[in-house]
């Protein structure tokens, strides 16, 4: 018999993290053809980020800010993908 550790309920809590991406983070970020929020979310999904029910990614091209509402492990994955400090 193998006993699995109980899942940490805090791991499923959705939390916000704001990323400052800078003007040149996405190609064309300084022009009207900058990626939309749905494009950025698709990029994150393609990189392996999961978006459980209630999780979101909102990109603000004018300020270069990305606000992600997701679980801690998925936010940490984004940090690792884009080399952000935690």
How does this structure look, described?
There is one protein chain. With 86 residues, the protein is an alpha+beta fold. It has helices spanning 37-46, 72-81, and strands at residues 14-20, 56-60, 65-71. 23% of the residues lie in helices and 22% in strands. The termini are far apart.
Q: In short, what is this structure?
A:
The chain is an alpha+beta fold and 86 residues long. The chain is built from 2 helices and 3 strands. The protein has a 3-stranded antiparallel sheet.
List the helices and strands and how they pair.
Blueprint (H helix, E strand, L loop, with lengths): L13 E7 L16 H10 L9 E5 L4 E7 H10 L5
Antiparallel strand pairs: 1-3, 2-3
Which descriptors apply to this entry?
three-stranded antiparallel beta sheet; 3 strands; 2 helices; 86 residues; alpha+beta; elongated
Report how far the terminal alpha carbons are from each other.
Answer: 38 Å
How much helix is in the residues? 10-25%
> What is the approximate shape?
elongated
- Tell me the fraction of residues in β-strands, as a range: 15-25%
Tally of separate helices: 2
The overall pLDDT average reads 81
Structural class: alpha+beta
């Amino acid at each position: 018999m193998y006993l699995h550790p109980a899942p940490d309920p805090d791991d499923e809590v959705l939390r916000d993290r704001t990323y400052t991406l800078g003007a040149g983070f996405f190609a064309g970020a300084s022009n009207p053809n900058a990626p939309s929020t749905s494009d950025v979310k698709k990029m994150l999904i393609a990189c392996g980020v999961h978006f459980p029910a209630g999780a979101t990614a909102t990109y603000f091209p004018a300020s270069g800010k990305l606000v992600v509402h997701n679980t801690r492990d998925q936010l940490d994955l984004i940090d690792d993908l884009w080399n952000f400090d935690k």
